[in-house]
Amino acid sequence: xxxxxxxxxxxLLNEKTIDDDFPEHTRNGLYNILYEFVEKGCIKGSxxxxxxxxxxxxxxxxxxxxxxxxxxxxxxxxYKLEWxxxxxxxxRIYEKLLKARYVPGDLIELExxxxxxxxxxxxxxxxxxxxxEIMDGQFIRGGHAITRKNVxxxxxxxxxxxxxxxxxxxxxxxxxxxxNPQPDIENSVKESICAxxxxxxxxxxxxxxxxxxxYLNKLQGNAEGQIPxxxxxxxxxxxxxxxxxxxxxxxxxxxxxxSIHEAELVLNLVAGYITYFIDKLNYDEVPF
Length: 288
What we know:
It contains twelve helices and four strands; from the N terminus they run αααααββαββαααααα. It is mainly alpha-helical.
């Protein structure tokens, strides 16, 4: 698994997440990755096969060319393709061109080559703050840097078996958010809130899902083990958003508008609330 890049770990990404471009400097990085995998012998047909794929993705008319010129052709085409075609090209390499390498002392199976390629691509797009990342050969919307960090933390926070249902709900929310080509933002919000409900139910041992607002208000207060009123009310309002947003709960068609931005915000807020509730009410430190 690719690690979180330095600039993300230390909050050095100040620019807006890019979801409609594949910048020149990112294309430079991609070319370097392609060069590395050719050198390792993990690309079928080397630059010739990549030239065919990049021409296909860019809808460039194919002409026969001496193999010695193929590398230059790939490099040139890489800067001509539209940003979405670059993503398609990378997916095609993962699916069609990666191969195992059998060399004494350096054995690379196909699955390992795919994992290495995927990790290199994800490190690249994360470092350059692109909105998409590749998973099992297909690009999904990864969200902002903070979202990626929170998603990884949720895998740790909800790792215990007793939180399995909450983990399932949160993973569904993430899957709906990343649905390709069109995110299912309504179901993402719904499943995020369900993850929060399930977590609080496990911690309190109460059927809070029957009346979430009622049970949260009972937790409100300044005594040991209670939750300050502003925090309780903020959770209640997010819970109410699920019921008041269009298409999120019970087919509501006249409620609040919801977009990918609100869905991502809810994913992050729920991650924060879940971490807080486990840390506050579980009398056990969160493991990070």
